[in-house]
């Protein structure tokens, strides 16, 4: 009977996993910030911004930066876990400003070409491609700052709770 009790508490330990909670919180905060920055810039509420990619700040960067920083703070910055988290963070942030940003810019050009096609063309009625895919360097940097701040604040709160 004791084994099932410890097994049950083992499953609930996910709710005290500091790196996971830091990453999820950073992602959530970034998405909410995007929602409000869209309203500020465009004077309209866009619920898609709560789950969509692209925009200020980068939620992908905030998530992986919070994860890496939390792992480093909890496990140490010299270990293998931090090394893996750091490499993952570097790849995600590079990809956000590279491949994904340029794919979004190509989508803009392709959408404009399709828009200018005559109505009888078979592609004239095709659904537009998503254009907001990647991030500018400032969006990625702000996402990284948000992720770092989230992990550090979480770490300090965790320290004071002990």
UniProtKB/TrEMBL annotation:
Residues annotated as transmembrane: 20-40, 76-94, 140-161
UniProt key word Transmembrane helix: yes
Keywords: Membrane, Transmembrane, Transmembrane helix
Keyword Membrane assigned: yes
InterPro entries: DUF212
Organism domain of life: Eukaryota
Pfam family name, one: DUF212
PANTHER family: ACID PHOSPHATASE/VANADIUM-DEPENDENT HALOPEROXIDASE-RELATED PROTEIN, ACID PHOSPHATASE_VANADIUM-DEPENDENT HALOPEROXIDASE-RELATED PROTEIN
Official protein name in the record: Phosphatidic acid phosphatase type 2/haloperoxidase domain-containing protein
